[in-house]
């Protein structure tokens, strides 16, 4: 039998000793073994023992010098402890059976073979013995090692039963293929197609968790193409599917916005691991199907898709059970502003336009520019190169204006309180209008964001509106 070299860490020997003392067989199993073979870093260890997993965890904790706390989950028959950076979960070998309308199995004690059979894919049905008689020996009942070498995702048992029992495994198959750049075995993929409707019994939170992992893949478009081809994307994210397709009228065609979006996503993935910047790429053109129009002279247009798309973000986040917090606001902002830098690539771009973009983008200006660069997709390499060179100029202008005017996330030095105090006003529409007028004047470069100059402008504007100064502010910011 083939042997695998376990990492140099005392936890493995301690588990082996504890298992020997309790007279149970123990194995490292699942994802840790897979990642070890693939030379991927992993600090999460799953230990299966043929016997009492919780008892083994308790024995291990007593033998470790730092005596870690054991977290016990009786409902699941599992226990977990930490040893330095390593997280070790213990469970007794078990076999499972499923009912039609639930992905929660009925569990009973089983053999190691039973436990391996219940694993989702052959590459995760690998074990390494921690037993004295065959320590380090690889347990590979379903040719997982061979599938790993062939770069294949395949189920240990009949795939139709595997996916019908636990439909989330369909998402996991695509996630592993996307993360590892593996192919899905044809019979396994056909079973995903046949069982795709079963995904409806899975909670949205679990689906989105797998979707986010696909999005964070090195080349996320691969996962999305598998989701699309299987029909799963139509069920879990129909709004994205609406982007697919090309319509032609009088010989004029628009591009396929689904595949364009995937290219933008891949482009972003090359420069950032930020999940929310990648979501911005996915949603930047999401409103194009709703705003698509054909004009005999202008051809295909998508006017206002950036504003409409930004308004759609909160509903999509709610439907997908994504967080309705600052991450959502970030995506909204980037979707709304993603066309703005493109309009600045002209030689005649004004400082006021640069100021306005800095003001609206704030600290997210760098992320916005990454998205805009990623949005330049064309089969014409010369055209792409020219656009990217223009963006270099825009970014240089942004740096220059920011250094001179400090407009990133700026606030006018004249506050609403100063306006009310100066003219004896209560909170009102007039106060808001005065503040907005002052902000516009600063962005247009008519007034510097310095107290004396801004206050003089305020007094002049108040006079035009028939307001009387009743208090002179000496506040100097």
UniProtKB/TrEMBL annotation:
Its cofactor is Mg(2+). One of its GO terms (biological process) is tRNA processing. This is tRNA nucleotidyltransferase. InterPro entries: HD/PDEase_dom (IPR003607), HD_domain (IPR006674), HDIG_dom (IPR006675), NT_sf (IPR043519), PolA_pol_head_dom (IPR002646), PolyA_RNA-bd (IPR032828), tRNA_CCA-adding_enzyme (IPR050124). GO terms for molecular function: ATP binding; metal ion binding; nucleotidyltransferase activity; RNA binding. PANTHER family: MULTIFUNCTIONAL CCA PROTEIN. The keyword Lipoprotein does not apply.
């Amino acid at each position: 039998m083939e042997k695998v070299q376990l990492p140099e860490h005392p936890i493995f020997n301690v588990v082996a000793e504890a298992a020997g003392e309790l007279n149970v067989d123990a194995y490292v199993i699942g994802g840790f073994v897979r990642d070890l073979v693939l030379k991927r870093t992993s600090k999460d260890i799953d230990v299966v023992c043929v016997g009492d997993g919780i008892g083994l965890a308790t024995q291990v904790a007593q033998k470790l010098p730092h005596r870690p706390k054991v977290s016990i989950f009786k409902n699941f028959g599992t226990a977990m402890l930490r040893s330095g950076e390593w997280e070790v979960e213990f469970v007794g070998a078990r076999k499972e059976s499923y009912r039609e309308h639930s992905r929660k199995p009925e569990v009973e004690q089983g053999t190691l073979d039973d436990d391996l059979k219940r694993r989702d894919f052959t590459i995760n049905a690998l074990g390494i013995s921690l037993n004295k008689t065959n320590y380090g020996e690889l347990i590979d009942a379903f040719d997982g090692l061979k599938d790993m070498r062939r770069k294949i995702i395949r189920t240990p048992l009949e795939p139709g039963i595997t996916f019908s029992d636990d439909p989330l495994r369909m998402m996991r198959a695509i996630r592993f293929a996307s993360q590892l750049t593996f192919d899905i075995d044809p019979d396994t993929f056909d079973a995903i197609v046949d069982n795709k409707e079963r995904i409806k019994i899975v909670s949205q939170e679990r689906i989105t968790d797998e979707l986010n992992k696909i999005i964070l893949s090195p080349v996320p478009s691969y996962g999305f193409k598998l989701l699309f081809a299987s029909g799963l994307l139509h069920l879990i994210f129909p709004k994205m599917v609406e982007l697919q397709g090309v319509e032609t009228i009088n010989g004029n065609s628009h591009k396929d916005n689904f595949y364009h979006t995937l290219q933008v996503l891949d482009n972003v993935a090359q420069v950032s691991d930020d999940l929310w910047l990648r979501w911005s790429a996915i949603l930047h053109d999401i409103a194009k199907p709703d705003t698509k129009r054909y004009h005999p002279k202008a051809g295909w247009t998508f006017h206002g898709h950036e504003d409409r798309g930004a308004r759609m973000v909160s509903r999509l986040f709610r439907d997908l059970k994504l967080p309705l917090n600052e991450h959502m606001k970030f995506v909204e902002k980037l979707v709304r502003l993603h066309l703005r830098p493109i309009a600045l690539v002209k030689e005649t771009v004004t400082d006021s336009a640069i100021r306005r973009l800095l003001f609206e983008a704030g600290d997210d200006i760098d992320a916005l520019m990454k998205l805009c660069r990623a949005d330049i997709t064309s089969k014409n390499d010369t055209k792409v190169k020219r656009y990217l060179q223009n963006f270099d100029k825009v970014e240089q202008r942004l740096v220059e204006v920011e250094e001179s005017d400090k407009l990133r996330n700026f606030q006018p030095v004249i506050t609403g309180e100063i306006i009310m105090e100066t003219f004896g006003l209560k909170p009102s529409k007039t106060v808001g209008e005065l503040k907005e007028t002052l902000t516009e004047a600063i962005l247009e470069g008519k007034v510097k964001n310095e107290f004396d100059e801004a206050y003089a402008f305020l007094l002049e504007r108040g006079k035009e509106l028939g307001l009387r100064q009743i208090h002179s502010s000496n506040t100097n910011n």
